[in-house]
Amino acid sequence: MATIQKYMEIPAARLPIVAEADVVVTGGGTAGYIAAVAAARSGAKTVLIERNGFLGGSATGTYNTNLSSSYDSDGNRIMGGVPWEAIERLAAAGGAYIREIKNGRRTHAEIFPETTKTVALEMVYEAGVDLYLHTWASDCLMENGSVRGIIVQNKSGRQIVLGKTFVDASADADIAYKAGAPFEQLDVDHSYLTTLDLTVCNIDVDKVLRWVKDNADRLETPKMPDNIEDNEGIKSMVEFVVKGPRKTKLPDGSTYRPGRALGVKMLIRRSICRVQGHVEIDGTDVKQLTWAEYEGRRQALEELNYLRENVPGFEDAFVVAQSPLGVRETRRVKGEYWLTLQDLDGNTRHPDVVGLNCRPVDKHMKNDEFSIRMLMGNHDIPLRALIPQNVRNLLVAGRCISSDHDANASLRGGGTCMITGHAAGTAAALASRGNGQVRDVDIALLQRTLLDQGAILSTDPGRRFV
């Protein structure tokens, strides 16, 4: 039986304009706060709108501590500029660890989320960004194919923020969707799982590490640093899987696991761990998001109870915090270029490159099926993948960039989101100097500006940018 939707007419609103800017960034997550800093440092008057009371998105809210895509498979650093500055500032504050493998090649940065919140706020305020926390971007005002302004909602009421150029870093492409840009969104059965994390403390680290060392043959590929007996200061994470179906190799090189398994990550402050629940939902449907808060928490508590009963050192562990839902996939805009898995595997090069990526392709699928495959080398991210079709003055950054479902399993990673945020914020600032139209940005000027800011656009020393 079809659902009957009821409606009410409401009076036309006369809303206050609370800010006017050169660049307006919606979403202060992993991509958004970097985009805002980059835009402001490029000389643009910048507004940043974030619905939470903190910045950093999946690098803070969902306790995603692994910012992969800092280095490629050959150990070349592919993250620079504003994102790498954030990592270095985290490390200086005792909140980041640059992980190395045994042959000395660096692989990625691991971060401590609460420190990330502080560093993100510091960078935003130092850059002179006009920040609105606790503020939801609910709609946009269109004029001749361009976004004129954003309607926001917060404790002060409904307001309008006007701008010349806009960056949608909302993860779900909320502004691009409202502006009429085309997008792709798969149904629940084919989208990647959404995860809820609970933060667990009061772990006896020494007991856990001894148990892992003594039971390594019973665990799935435990990742143990060489210095596991040294628990002082910032250390690499300890990771292991304590139960569930074993992984197998697929013909395409992916490692595949057919069902739910309990993966443990003892974070860089090793007395802290996370437990997770996984749900199959449409991340743009409020009722499904509401149900996920319950079901995800229930599953995460099941994992904690298992650890308490089976892994020495977890007997007295307890939950101290719940993270916001980690939604992996919703809308992906259709941009001027559509990144595919073939681009990633083929190390495709583009004349309008604005960043690089090498994050593994990891797929969290229905019924807790999981696969992961490493990428070799690195590939270009073109500016065209950040430009939605049918909108003149809008860029996107983060996991909603223009890419197919399979490619997005790599591109959605936190490190890559930071890289696309840097590119989008800088491009938006350059566009705002003229008519605000993002397609009019001089790509050579954009690339020079990014390089001057320390971005890495190639690992080939022979490649030149005009």
Describe the structure in your own words.
This protein is α+β, with helices and mostly antiparallel strands. It has two domains: 285 residues, FAD/NAD(P)-binding domain, CATH 3.50.50; 134 residues, no CATH class. It has ten helices and 25 strands. Strands 1, 2, 6, 7, 8, 9 and 25 form a seven-stranded mixed β-sheet that branches. Strands 11, 12, 13, 16, 17, 18 and 19 form a seven-stranded antiparallel β-sheet that branches. α1 links the parallel β1 and β2. The longest helix has 25 residues. The model has no long low-confidence stretch (mean pLDDT 91).
Task: List the keywords.
466 residues; alpha+beta; FAD/NAD(P)-binding domain; 2 domains; 7-stranded mixed β-sheet
Write the layout of secondary structure elements.
Layout: E1 17-26, H1 32-41, E2 46-49, E3 66-67, H2 81-92, E4 96-100, E5 106-111, H3 113-126, E6 130-132, E7 136-143, E8 146-154, E9 157-168, H4 174-178, E10 183-184, E11 194-201, H5 205-214, E12 220-223, E13 238-243, E14 248-249, E15 255-257, E16 262-266, E17 273-279, H6 286-310, E18 318-322, E19 326-327, E20 332-333, H7 341-345, E21 353-357, E22 361-364, E23 370-373, E24 379-382, E25 394-396, H8 405-411, H9 414-432, H10 443-452
Parallel strand pairs: 1-2, 1-9, 2-6, 9-25
Antiparallel strand pairs: 3-5, 4-5, 7-8, 8-9, 10-20, 11-17, 11-18, 11-19, 12-13, 13-16, 14-15, 15-23, 16-17, 21-24, 22-23
Helix pairs in contact: 1-3, 1-9
